[in-house]
Inverse folding.
């Protein structure tokens, strides 16, 4: 597991928490920010997956 995979996963989880908090307090702006963080986190995590696969393929 590399840095991008870990950071991406953490951002995804944080975004889910932020989205749910926005729902609880009725703040659509926070919900949208949470969804945005989830997308960014998943993208970074996938980038980390690609890096890891390339590293494994070259070894």
């Amino acid at each position: 597991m590399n840095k991008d995979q870990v950071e991406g996963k953490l951002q995804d989880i944080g975004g889910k928490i932020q989205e749910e908090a926005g729902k609880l307090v009725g703040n659509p702006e926070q919900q949208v920010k949470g969804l945005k963080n989830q997308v960014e986190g998943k993208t970074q995590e996938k980038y980390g997956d690609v890096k890891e696969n390339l590293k494994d393929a070259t070894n």
